[in-house]
Every structure is written in C-alpha cells, then in structure tokens.
Specification:
The chain is of the alpha+beta class. Helices cover 31% and strands 21% of the residues. Strands 1-2-3-4-6-5 form a six-stranded antiparallel β-sheet. Strands 9, 11, 13, 14, 15 and 17 form a six-stranded antiparallel β-sheet that branches. Strands 16-12-19 form a three-stranded antiparallel β-sheet, with no helix packed on it.
C-alpha cells in the first residue's frame, strides 16, 4: 500500500513508507511524532519508524534542524542507546528509522512493579547515564529524559531512545510550546521549566528524577497540570528520599539529592561524574549474594536447613558441658579473689572496650578561622543517631583556602579506638582523624590515613590513646559544603 497521508498526523497501518517500510502497528504517539512497528522489506526485519507530526513539517527551520540532528544521532553507537538505522522524507513527512526493541519501557516496569530493589535501580540508572554521557561527548543533549524514553530489551538492559529529537525541535517561544515539545513536566529541570538555557546538567537533573522514581515508585513532584508541576521543580526542595525508602543507603540518597539540585552548578559536573558515583555506590552494595543474606535467615540457619541432619552420640556433648561448668567455676573463684594481681574486674587501663564507646560531638573546630560560621549549633547532630540530620561546614566557593576544618568528638574517657566511621550525604570530600587534648584543641597527631569520604567511610586508627578526636576535613573535593551526618566508634 503506497497511499500518501501527508498532512495527517497519523499514518495508515499497512502503508509502505519510502517503498520499503511497511507500517504494522502504532506503538506510541506523542506531542511531536508517532512511532510505528514496521517491517523492513528490503532486509526482512522489524524496525521502529518515527514520523514527525505534520504541523512541524510546515516550518523549514524545524525541518532543517530535524534533518541535521537526525544525521548526528545516527552516528551514535552505544549499547545503551537505541540505534538509528535510517532517516528520510516522503511527501513532505520527515521520518527516522531505528532498531526495534521488543521489550517494555521503564515506565511500564515501574507501573507494574512499583519501587525497584536498590541494586536494580542503580544498575538501570548507570546504564542510562552511560548512554547519556556518550551522547554528551558527541555534543547532543537529550532534553527529554524520562522512563518512557528508556526501553528494556529481552535481557533487561536499558536503551535510551529519542536522542536529539527534543533538541532538534528546540522552541524558543515560551513555556507552552516547550511543554508541548517535552510532552511531560514530571522530569523537567528547573532551568528548562523557566525557559533558561539548558545543557548536559539538564539531563543530570532529569535522570535524578528517574532514579528517585525507580527507588520510590513515585515522581518527586506530582501535580495536576504542567504549570503546577513545573513550579514545584523551580521552587520546592525535593522530598526526603530516606523518608519514603529508609532502606536506601545514605550514599545513594546523597546521589539523588545532588542530581536534583536547583542550581545546575550544584549538580554533578558531568554525566560521566554521575555515572562514576552510581558505579561506586553499586560496588559498595557488595555482591548480589551478600545483598540477599541481609534479607533472608542467617547463613548458619540457611546452611542448617540445606544439610541433612546427622545424629551423633550425646556423650561428647555431655562431657563438653561438664568441662564448661568446671571452667566457669574456676573463673568465678578467681574473680571473687580479685584476680592474682589484686585488681578488680574492669580496672584495666584504657576503660571499656572500644566497641562500647559512644562518641559525642562537642564542638566545631576551625583553628585557621576566616570569620566564617561553622554551624556550632548543629554540632550535636553529628552524633544524635539520626542519619538524616548533619553538622555542616560553612559554604566555600573556591575550596577551603586553609589547611582544614572539622568537629571534635568526645569518647568520654581516654581510649585507644581501633576505628572511626563517618557517614555523609555529601560524598567526595577528604578527611582524616586526628587527636586533640581538649574540646578546643590544639590540633594533635594524625591517627588515620586521609580518605575520600563516601556515604559510609571507616577510618582505621593508629592506636593512639585520647579522649578527644577531630574529624578533620582537608579538601572539599569540589563541593561547596561538607556534611557529617554521623560519627561512631568502630
């Protein structure tokens, strides 16, 4: 069938485009195009055919942009990008042909299953980020990153589609037309919603929204209409991910928070940086087997259930119990006499075992003070047991400009801690643990290696005995402000 339907936004199933592609089924339609499953009669294969709606064909400037961007997108070759096969024009209609992916899109997956497991959400977000990073390297910004534009193939791999189309149809005539181009406002970046220039940071924000939805099953800013949702993206802070999904690791929550910053400069500096942090968080989860042991009965119980029960003689058990009773009697006698050296139990030097030490944050510490306020009132939040609260440094816009800044924690008595663990929702800064003699300093010896602080970072200590320890931040790592959400011994 070769009838022309120029001027009609919906072509006819059974129609043959360019004397080669036979339309078989309409699989999707949006504000700017319709997508059909088609049969490539020349190469005998299934393809997807996107046909631009007729009212865009009436503007030569749009048509030229479409042609130029279609050629650029056709050069993209990446496992996480839907491959463009061909482009053309027939009877004034512009069309693009790309590989046909038979699976569902990411939106359908979330609608069916709700919130995804953390590992699966990170895996999918990482694949999307890698595809977007590759496109950014080629000078293309997607501008319409959303789950509907991510297809899942038979192996469950993510493939981003509609690359460059929104940019090709870039409209500079206000919010209404921009909204039409994007099709949905649930994933729109603040600068995009307000009509300001967009760049790769815009895709970073939209992918942050997608990751939030994968982890919670909901978009962060729901609403009844485009304008209402767009205003939320511009003005409202995103909801606390940990309130909706408490089992999400702190590092993952920090990733989403950073991606959803209103100011593009506060987001990840590039999609490559976003992908690197997703990859690091994924590795921090450990192996899939390790993840499973956290949500099923203990390893010992699983092994005992999977092994046949062997009956053994009771005599070894009885003899063992008698030996334990005898040993307990000897120990009790020694303790009653105060021990061979006359010391009472618990009188050993160094106080209680480090594992029983509770650290209390007592003061901010800025010996190289530069008239900045290091939020002294928030210091207790670093050890209040609430990982959603934090002590924060002042804001620095060009690095610390001094050797360091930090907070002092009190172990209650002199003790040689083996390890101090720091939790943060602003990963990327560098810190070390140092000793000090009081709640006001001075800065003492270095008791740990300097490490880049991720979501949860353990600092092994050298064994120095001290009551007061300093979490000493030496480099912000490009951040404007560092957070310490929790500090604990061990």
């Amino acid at each position: 069938m070769a009838s022309s339907v120029a001027g009609n936004d919906r072509s006819v199933v059974g129609e043959r485009i360019a004397d080669r592609y036979e339309l078989e089924e309409l699989v999707g339609s949006g504000g700017m195009s319709s997508v059909y499953r088609a049969h490539d009669q020349l190469l005998d294969r299934k393809v997807a055919l996107k046909i631009l709606h007729s009212h865009y064909n009436e503007d030569e400037e749009y048509v030229e942009r479409f042609r130029r961007e279609a050629r650029a997108v056709a050069r993209l070759s990446h496992p996480n990008i839907v491959t463009v096969i061909d482009r053309g024009e027939e009877d004034g209609r512009q069309f693009i042909v790309f590989e046909y992916v038979s699976g569902e899109n990411l939106k359908e997956l979330v609608d069916r299953n709700g919130a995804l497991p953390v590992r699966r959400a990170l895996e999918l977000a990482l694949q999307i980020a890698r595809g977007l990073a590759f496109a950014h390297d080629q000078g293309l910004v997607h501008r319409d990153v959303k789950p509907q534009n991510v297809l899942l193939n038979g192996e469950g791999e993510a493939k981003v589609t509609d690359f460059g189309i929104a940019r090709s149809l870039d409209v500079e005539q206000g919010m209404t037309q921009t909204g039409t181009v994007l099709g949905t406002s649930n994933y729109i970046a603040p600068e995009q919603a307000s009509g300001r220039p967009v760049d790769a940071h815009t895709d970073v924000y939209s992918l942050g929204v997608v990751l939030h939805e994968l982890l919670t099953g909901e978009v962060p800013f729901p609403g009844d209409n485009f304008v209402a949702v767009a205003m939320k993206h511009i003005n409202e802070p995103p909801p606390d991910l940990l309130e909706k999904r408490p089992d999400v690791p702190l590092r993952v929550a920090a990733i989403v928070d950073r991606a959803l910053q209103k100011d593009p400069a506060d987001r990840f500096p590039s999609m490559h940086a976003f992908a690197a942090e997703l990859d690091a968080a994924l590795h921090e989860l450990g192996s899939p087997d390790t993840d499973r042991t956290a949500i099923v009965p203990s390893l010992v119980m699983r092994e005992s259930r999977s092994r046949p029960i062997r009956r053994r003689s009771r005599w070894p058990l009885v003899l063992g119990l008698l030996a334990l009773v005898a040993a307990a009697a000897v120990v009790a006698g020694v303790l009653a006499l105060g021990g061979s050296n006359g010391k009472k139990p618990g009188a050993a030097a160094g106080g209680p075992a480090p594992a029983n030490i509770h650290l209390a944050a007592v003061s901010d510490f800025d010996p190289y003070g530069d008239d900045r306020t290091e939020h002294a009132a928030d210091v207790p939040k670093a050890t209040d047991g609430d990982r959603s609260s934090a002590w924060t440094t002042s804001s620095y816009y060009s690095g610390l400009g001094k050797p360091g800044v930090g907070i002092i924690v009190d172990a209650g008595k002199p003790v040689a801690l083996r390890k101090v663990t720091v939790l943060t929702d602003t990963p990327g800064y560098r810190a070390q643990i140092r000793t000090t003699s009081s709640t006001t300093g001075p800065l003492g010896t270095v008791d740990s290696p300097t490490r880049t602080v991720s979501g949860t970072t353990a600092f092994p200590l050298n064994g120095a005995t001290s009551r007061y320890y300093v979490i000493w931040i030496t480099d912000l790592g490009g951040l404007r402000q560092a957070h310490i959400n929790e500090v604990r011994a061990g």
